[in-house]
Known about the structure:
Layout: H1 2-20, E1 31-37, E2 42-48, E3 53-61, E4 70-80, E5 83-94, E6 100-108, E7 117-124, E8 132-138
Antiparallel strand pairs: 1-8, 2-7, 3-6, 3-8, 4-5, 4-7
Amino acid sequence: MRDLLLGLLTTLLLATTSLAEAKYYPPLDRLVLNEVVSTAPASSYPFYLPKRGRYYAEIIREGQTDTAPQTLNLIVRVMRDTTVLFEKHVQQTLAGDQPGATLFWLNSPYDVPDRHELTVTVATDTPLATPLRLQITRKVELLPLFVR
């Protein structure tokens, strides 16, 4: 019995140390866009907002993150067919050790409609030193607790 208890305790301690080292990645059901921005002046990607709520757009460096600081001038447009629904001009400086940054917040259905086929276009006037990944993720919304 003592050996069984010691074995369970050892397993528990090893499991908690491996959980502490795990990195956090957004769940796939919250990630609505995950594309590498091409080096072309403008790139378009289809995306779909499945639920209402707040979404945030992030730009993340691909590959080596210890590079020179980079200033990005981006124009991000969300379109439905040929109609521009949302447009954001972003100037973001990524430090040498900074892997990514949040560009902007997007509210659905106020800024853009949900449950419709949309297109996001990313345009830049500066050449990209490293490949960048654009991610749009839904923010976690906890339900309000009603106290009686």
